[in-house]
Write a structure and sequence with these properties.
Elements (H helix, E strand, L loop, with lengths): L8 H18 L3 H10 L8 H20 L3 H24 L2 H27 L4 H21 L2 H10 L7 H20 L3 H24 L8 H4 L2 E7 L8 E3 L1 H14 L15 E2 L5 E8 L13
Antiparallel strand pairs: 1-2, 1-4, 3-4
């Protein structure tokens, strides 16, 4: 079995290339986090992809340690754990209270509870080959779920004919990474490493194909429709300089009541400097566009 030892040249080549390419995949969110640091806000981004990536890297590290002779698997997932921890720390630093609480809950649930449970259940009751097999198939299950996550982005691309949230570079490196780790697992005769990357390869190919199809196609929706907006109706009555957001129905009812008592429309002043439309009762409607949180690119890393 010396041909499948770590020193086998092709096994070493696939492992090293897998490490190099996976580093680029792990570093893909760096521009987003530089923007977060610059704006001092998470801007609607979600922490879920990074917590899941940390959880996945920790599982593969555990698997590599108990399997032995998988030093290249240990190296890239060690790097992944460090990078994802930095991402999550930055996110927590600049997140709102609600987003911070959600992130902490995810960390406690996935890392503190689920990972610890997997570690304890497989470390003490199981041993030898059985432990390796059980942990390996747990890693396969998690990897398949992680690889399946970008399907929502794929459906969004097909629906909107826009590749805005599916950058070609990330899809390309994900495909290369899947090829390298599939070859590594095949040469190592480890189906737990090879199988998930078959799905990763096909998913990456689908993403690149969609990018080629829609990269020059204008989205089906107008530019205004691409950024959903909340409409806040504001009204000023009398000489008051205060502006209060109200529901449209409530505002109309109130203006009807006020219009019955007010003979002139001159008493209704517009506080916003921008031109606005007058309502039928002499009130003033102001439309304020509040952009929805930014879409969060789905980060998929399966360095195994």
């Amino acid at each position: 079995m010396a041909i499948f030892d770590l020193h086998h040249p092709w096994l070493f080549v696939f492992g090293v290339l897998g490490n190099i390419i996976s580093v680029f995949v792990f570093l893909a969110p760096v521009p987003a986090f530089r923007r977060i640091c610059k704006e001092k806000s998470t801007m609607g981004f979600q922490s879920l992809p990074y917590v899941v990536a940390l959880f996945s890297s920790m599982l593969w590290m555990y698997y590599a340690f108990i399997k032995k002779n998988a030093i290249l698997l240990v190296s890239i997932n060690s790097f992944g754990c460090i990078v994802e921890t930095i991402y999550i720390s930055i996110f927590i630093l600049y997140a709102s209270k609600q987003a911070r609480r959600q992130t902490v809950k995810l960390l406690v649930g996935l890392i503190g509870v689920l990972y610890t449970l997997i570690f304890l259940v497989t470390l003490f009751p199981l041993n030898g080959v059985l432990r390796v097999q059980v942990v390996g198939w747990i890693c396969v299950t998690v990897a398949v779920l992680v690889f399946a996550a970008p399907l929502s982005i794929v459906f969004q691309v097909v629906r909107t004919k826009s590749v805005e949230f599916m950058p070609f570079t990330l899809s390309f490196f994900l495909t290369l990474s899947a090829i390298m780790w599939f070859g590594y697992g095949l040469l190592l005769k480890d189906m737990c490493i090879a199988l998930p990357n078959v799905l990763g390869f096909f998913l990456g190919m689908i993403q690149m194909l969609l990018y080629a199809m829609y990269r020059n196609v204008k989205p089906t929706s107008d530019l205004e429709k691409k950024v959903p907006e909340h409409v806040i109706t504001m009204v000023t009555v009398g000489n008051s300089e205060q502006i209060h957001p109200v529901k449209s129905e409530d505002m109309i009812n109130k203006l009807d009541d006020v219009a019955a008592d007010q003979p002139s429309d001159d008493e209704y002043n517009v506080s916003p400097p921008a031109p606005v439309a007058n309502d039928h009762a002499g009130g003033v409607l102001a439309k304020v566009n509040v952009p929805q949180p930014l879409e969060t690119p789905v980060l998929v890393v399966c360095a195994a």
